[in-house]
Design a protein that fits this description.
The structure is a single chain. The chain has a two-stranded antiparallel ribbon with strand order 1-2. The chain has two helices and two strands; from the N terminus they run ββαα. By secondary structure, it is α+β, with helices and mostly antiparallel strands. Pfam families: ZapA. Keywords: Cell cycle, Cell division, Cytoplasm, Septation. Its main location: cytoplasm. One of its GO terms (biological process) is division septum assembly.
Length: 86
């Protein structure tokens, strides 16, 4: 069994350089990093006194909340689709 290709991409989040390693495309990795950076800026703008750790935790909580909400929406759409297929 061969190992999947792993991409090593350098990204900037909140002014700090990180090397992200993953099987996703470089474009995908850069997009995810940019969205994390954007969300951190958004949260930081509401409370400039958050330290980096608290900011990171709040960003993660927000991201997971959005993920859970999207999962619920997908489940609702799947149920509607099943009803339509009858």
């Amino acid at each position: 069994m061969s190992n999947p290709v792993r991409n090593r991409i350098e990204v900037m989040i909140r002014g700090t350089s990180y090397v992200i390693v993953g099987k996703e495309s470089p474009e995908h990795i850069r997009l995810v990093a940019a969205l994390v950076d954007e969300k951190m800026k958004e949260i930081s703008n509401h409370n400039a006194y958050l330290d980096t750790t608290r900011l990171a935790v709040l960003t993660a909580v927000n991201a997971v909340n959005e993920y859970v909400e999207l999962q619920k929406h997908v489940e609702q759409l799947e149920q509607q689709l099943k009803k339509l297929k009858g």
